[in-house]
């Protein structure tokens, strides 16, 4: 059997001489390495649409596929194996059980700050300390955590050049945060020591 590219006899285990390599190199100068046409439609090229994009399947082909699939169902055993594979620590996207709603909210806030090119950053621990300091209370409406969901509010909004440092963040419920919108209001000034303790 000959070599696919150079039409030379295959010599398993033998090494080509430098002279032979040079001959092959010279003969290939200026040639473009093309993918054979029969393989082109199966090769993925970034930015190039699929060969069958926009082409409609013929009614005969669709009917043939329908008949092939007719009566086929996923067995309970297979469903169970997929369920086991995609739950908990066996899931390929498992990240150690840290995707709690609170964690997701925190990551979304950080993403928003990055989008606004805000200076600084803070940790989830700093945010937790701040909430605990004010007894998990919204500084605007004075309601506490079991009845509301606290959200990070930037005193000077990110859209107006505010930073993402913890000293520019105050705990507000979602409703108060939405109402505040892009105004610069510091609710820390309205909080007394009695409010913090109660």
TrEMBL record:
Pfam families, alphabetized: HNH_5 (PF14279)
Domain HNH nuclease: 125-178
Region (Disordered): 71-94
InterPro entries hit by this protein: HNH_5, HNH_nuc, NA-targeting_endonuclease
Record's protein name: HNH nuclease domain-containing protein
Organism: marine sediment metagenome
């Amino acid at each position: 059997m000959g070599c696919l590219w150079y039409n030379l006899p295959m010599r398993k285990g033998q090494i080509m001489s430098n002279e032979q390599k040079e001959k092959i190199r010279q003969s290939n100068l200026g040639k473009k390495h093309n993918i054979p046409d029969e393989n082109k439609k199966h090769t993925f090229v970034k930015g190039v649409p699929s060969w069958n994009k926009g082409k409609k399947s013929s009614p005969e082909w669709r009917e043939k596929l329908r008949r092939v699939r007719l009566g086929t169902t996923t067995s309970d055993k297979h469903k169970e194996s997929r369920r086991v594979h995609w739950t908990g620590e066996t899931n390929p996207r498992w990240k150690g059980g840290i995707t709690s709603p609170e964690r997701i909210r925190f990551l979304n806030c950080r993403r928003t700050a990055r989008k606004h090119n805000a200076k600084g950053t803070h940790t989830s621990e700093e945010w937790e300390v701040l909430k605990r300091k004010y007894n998990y209370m919204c500084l605007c409406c004075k309601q506490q955590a079991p009845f509301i969901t606290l959200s990070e509010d930037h005193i000077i909004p990110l859209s107006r050049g505010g930073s993402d440092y913890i000293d520019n963040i105050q705990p507000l419920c979602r409703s108060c945060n939405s109402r505040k919108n892009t105004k610069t209001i510091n609710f820390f000034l309205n909080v007394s020591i009695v409010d913090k303790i109660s």
